Structures are given as C-alpha cells and as structure tokens.
Amino acid sequence: MEWIDIHAHLNMLEEGVEAAIHNAQSVGVKKIITIGTDPGDHPLVLDIARKYYPDVYCTLGVHPHDGKVYTEDVGKFIEMHATDREVVAVGEIGLDYYYNQSPVEDQKHAFRAQLEIAKLTGLPVEIHTRDAEADTIEILKEFKGDVRGVIHCFTGTEWLAKEALDVGFNISISGVVTFKNADSLRDTVKMLPVDRIHVETDAPFLAPIPMRGKKNTPAYVLHTAEFVANLKGLSIETLCEQTKKNALDMFPKVQWN
Predict the structure, then answer these.
(1) C-alpha distances in angstroms, 58 versus 33, 135, 251?
(2) Domain boundaries, the chain
(3) pLDDT tens per residue, range 138-189
(4) Which residues does the annotation say bind a divalent metal cation 1 (predicted)?
(5) Which residue of 70, 115, 121, 177 is surrounded by the most CB atoms within 10 Å?
C-alpha cells in the first residue's frame, strides 16, 4: 500500500526533514505535501520540496493567523511560483475566528486574494477554517466552479461538511477523528462520500491515538487511515487506493511513478 500525507509541516519537525521522510517511506507513505503558512517560510518549503522532489511537494499560502501580513507582493510571489513543478496548491489559507491573531477583515482580504490566485493559476487550495464556518462557505461560494480544493484537518459541523461538498470541495481527515471527545466528527466522517475524502497528519500537530503525547509525523498517517477505514466499514486497502485516487485527482501535479 502506498499513501500520501496531503498536509504536513516538514519544516517544523524536530526529527528533521530527512528522518521524517525516511520514516514515512518505511511504512508506505510515499508522498508528502509540506505546507507554506506565511511569507517567511515560503522559501524554506520551496527548498524542501525541490530537494526531495518527487517524494515531497509543497503549497504556498498565508494562513489566516498571518492575514495581516498578506500583501500584493506576497501574492505575486505565490503566483510567480504557481507553475513550479513542486508547487501543487495554494495554502494554507482560510479563516480562524478562534484565535483571531489577525483582524477579521484582514483575514477575509487575504483569503479572497489567494482564492483569486488559485482561480487564475488553476491550482487547488488547502483551507483552514475554525469558528468561521458561515463566512468560509460564503466566500467559497463566490468562487464556486472556479476553485476547488480541500478543507484540511476537518473538525467542523455536519453543516460545514455538506456545504463544502456542495461547493465542490473535498474533506481531509486528521488524527483528531481518533480523539476521545470527537464523536460528532466521527458521525460526520461516516456520511462523507469515499471519493471526496483525504487523510493527513498536520504534523507536527495532532498526533492520532495511539501516538497521542508524541510529536506527529507523516508516518503516523497510517493510524488515522486505519481508524477511518474501520469507521467507514472499508478495508484498509480500499481506503488506500481511494485516497490515492482522490489525491491524484485533486493534485494532478503529483507524480506517483
């Protein structure tokens, strides 16, 4: 079985990039997408993806926490590198009203501006949304049919899942689904169409059970995948093939062979 971790932060891992990739590949995680979150880390994630291509790819984007530092020049940088072979999406972008580390209007401006870049370049997006479901969907509806992508590390309501699916987005499931208090999330995951789901780690955050308490790493995506397969009544082999197919459809620049 060959897996892809569609959302990890390789530049944040204490074990180091090379060790993380080696450990992931040793358990069948053959591809990793490492995520850009702010202008300061874009050169680094590009360098990592270039060094380890075609096993590692990257996204470029400004996280809602950093919406206040989004500028036209940052957007031009993302757009300029959108054609690079290792850049597979715009992200991580979106809205976060839980921490509100950037003013709401700055978050919305950065979100819309980066969705425009995705529309222009044809890249999918990886979206972060927390306590901002209605505004996230409202903005995504403005781009319905022009931009597709993934709600990453989905922890939202069934309403958000259904609305996201309706607007053409897929759902990516992290280790949160394994947590003791995640019953409502598990109920939502059960109803998701299998051809619209992905698995991810969001490493180094949110290690799944039975790895809780440790720093997350791409190799641990298998624990989440096994849990999701059981939750949906699928064999692990079936989920593996389906999520691989979903990823190749969503991120066509990923080269599997």
Answers:
(1) 5, 26, 11
(2) 3-250
(3) 999 999 999 999 999 999 999 999 999 999 999 999 999 999 999 999 999 9
(4) 7, 9, 92, 202
(5) 70
22 is in an annotated binding site: no
Task: Tell me if 7 sits within 8 A of 202, measured CB to CB.
Answer: yes
Q: What is the pLDDT of residues 189-214, one digit of tens each?
A: 999 999 999 999 999 999 999 999 99
Nearest to 39 by CA among 3, 10, 71: 71
**202 labeled part of a ligand binding site:** yes
Q: Is 92 annotated as a binding residue?
A: yes
Q: 116 a known binding residue?
A: no
The CA-atom distances, in angstroms, between 91 and each of 15, 116, 129 are 24, 12, 12
Label residues 4-20 b or e (16+ Cβ within 10 Å = b).
Answer: bbbbbbbbbbebebeeb
| Cα(207)–Cα(90) distance, integer angstroms | 24
Asked if 53 and 254 touch (Cβ cutoff 8 Å), the reply is no
Rounded CA-CA distance 246/233 in Å is 18
The CATH number given to 3-250 is 3.20.20.140
Q: Count Cβ atoms within 10 A of the Cβ of residue 76 and give its class: 0-12 exposed, 13-18 middle, 19 or more buried.
A: exposed
Q: Is 81 annotated as a binding residue?
A: no
